[in-house]
């Protein structure tokens, strides 16, 4: 049975809602209240599953009452019932199960109850299986996968909001900062409404894949949102682990190979997120550093052919880097392919540098050919 209590300042509305609730055989009405204090006392003492709250009352704010109810019972589900559609954005500010307009009818309430039951089933599944297995991949395109499958977002802004919260590595993100990043040209009122509705939609999208209560909210310092996925596997975590291990003086070859394999063109490469640009550039430089480190390791261990495609990735990334092109020429020479080395040298020297850049390549072919192995003795950077 779904145990429900209702708060509305109008007795006529309470009678109408009672009549609709009685249609459902799986619903137990545990109380109908016009007084918010009595309603909250019932929340404290009754094992209630679901509360229906009027959004607008003369002596109480429905949103504030809902917040208090959730603080008393964090597992309780809230449904707002109101005659005014304009308050929907405010309702989205808390993790409400639903928002329905008066007069309440059986068909609409039926959809709400079905959603409640699906949410409860999701929670039970999570308890049976332990924590959800989830992966979050940010290189190339944002991809979130749970035990229920690949998350599909209803709209692009919900997807971008998830990416932005993930971008801040699980820390709280101020509402004003989110609005500035996602709705930079909107007036404050419209932008806040957009934020609340997008948070609501994002929670619904994630909930459909078994991820409930992963978007938390704080009201201090102007308000903030936070993404809570402490046990998720992430390609970003893999990349950072590989990079930091190498920076600390230990090249974990297998780890670096996996990090390079997962790069997929760059951080959120397939999304046009302006706020991600600086992070993209930072990770691009780190990617190049890992490429050079792995190329050097391969060459030192005689794995010359394995080094070649990595050098090509690096050259594609930095087409005007003399350092990269010199290594490519040197590698062809070490592979006993002097014709290929010379052809590559003249292509870069004559086309890339003389024509496109207007100046000469800084090293002669003979200088590189004199000791090609020397180019892999030190870490040379990007230039």
UniProtKB/TrEMBL annotation:
Which keywords has UniProt assigned to this entry? DNA-binding, Phosphoprotein, Transcription, Transcription regulation, Two-component regulatory system
Transcription regulation: present as a keyword of the record? yes
A Gene Ontology CC term for this entry? cytoplasm
Q: Which SUPFAM superfamilies does this one have?
A: C-terminal effector domain of the bipartite response regulators, CheY-like, TPR-like
- GO BP: any one term: phosphorelay signal transduction system
One GO MF annotation is:
DNA binding
A Pfam cross-reference name: Response_reg
Subcellular locations according to the entry = Cytoplasm
4-aspartylphosphate (modified residue): where?
A: 54
Q: Isomerase as a keyword?
A: no
- Matching InterPro entries, A to Z? AfsR-DnrI-RedD_regulator (IPR051677), BTAD (IPR005158), CheY-like_superfamily (IPR011006), OmpR/PhoB-type_DNA-bd (IPR001867), Sig_transdc_resp-reg_C-effctor (IPR016032), Sig_transdc_resp-reg_receiver (IPR001789), TPR-like_helical_dom_sf (IPR011990), WH-like_DNA-bd_sf (IPR036388)
- The record places domain Response regulatory at 3-117
PROSITE patterns per record: RESPONSE_REGULATORY
* Family according to the record: Belongs to the AfsR/DnrI/RedD regulatory family.
Q: What name does the UniProt record give this protein?
A: Response regulator
**Organism from which the protein derives:** Halalkalibacter oceani
Q: What is the lineage of its organism?
A: Bacteria, Bacillati, Bacillota, Bacilli, Bacillales
């Amino acid at each position: 049975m779904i145990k429900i209590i209702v708060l509305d300042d109008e007795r006529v509305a309470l009678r109408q809602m009672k009549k609709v609730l009685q249609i459902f055989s799986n619903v137990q009405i545990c109380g109908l209240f016009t007084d918010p204090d009595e309603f909250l006392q019932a929340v404290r003492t009754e094992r209630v599953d679901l509360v229906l709250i009027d959004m607008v009352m003369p002596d109480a704010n429905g949103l504030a009452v809902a917040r208090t109810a959730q603080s008393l019972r964090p597992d309780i589900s809230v449904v707002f019932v109101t005659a005014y559609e304009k308050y929907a954005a405010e309702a989205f500010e808390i993790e409400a199960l639903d928002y329905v307009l008066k007069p309440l009818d059986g068909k609409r309430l039926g959809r709400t109850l079905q959603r409640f039951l699906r949410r409860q089933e999701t929670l039970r599944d999570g308890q049976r299986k332990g924590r959800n297995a989830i992966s979050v991949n940010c290189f190339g395109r944002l991809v979130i996968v749970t035990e229920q499958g690949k998350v599909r977002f209803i709209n692009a802004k919900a997807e971008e909001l998830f990416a932005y919260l993930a971008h801040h590595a699980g820390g709280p993100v101020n509402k004003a900062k989110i609005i500035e990043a996602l709705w930079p040209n909107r007036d404050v009122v419209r932008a806040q409404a957009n934020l609340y509705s997008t948070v609501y939609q994002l929670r619904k999208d994630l909930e459909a894949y078994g991820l409930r209560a992963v978007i938390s909210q704080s009201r201090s310092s102007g308000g903030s949102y936070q993404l809570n996925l402490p046990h998720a596997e992430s390609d970003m975590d893999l990349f950072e682990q590989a990079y930091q291990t190498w920076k600390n003086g230990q090249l974990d070859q297998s780890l670096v190979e996996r990090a390079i394999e997962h790069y997929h063109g760059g951080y959120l490469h397939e999304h046009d997120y302006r706020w991600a640009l600086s992070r993209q550039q930072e990770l691009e430089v780190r990617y190049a550093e890992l490429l050079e480190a792995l190329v050097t390791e391969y060459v030192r261990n005689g794995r010359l052919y394995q080094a070649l495609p990595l050098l090509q990735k690096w050259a594609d990334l930095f087409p005007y880097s003399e350092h990269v092109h010199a290594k490519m020429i040197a590698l062809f020479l070490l592979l006993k392919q002097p014709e290929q080395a010379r052809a590559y040298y003249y292509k870069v020297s004559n086309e890339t540098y003389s024509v496109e850049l207007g100046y000469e390549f800084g090293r002669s072919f003979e200088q590189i050919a004199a000791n090609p192995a020397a180019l892999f003795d030190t870490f040379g950077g990007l230039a």
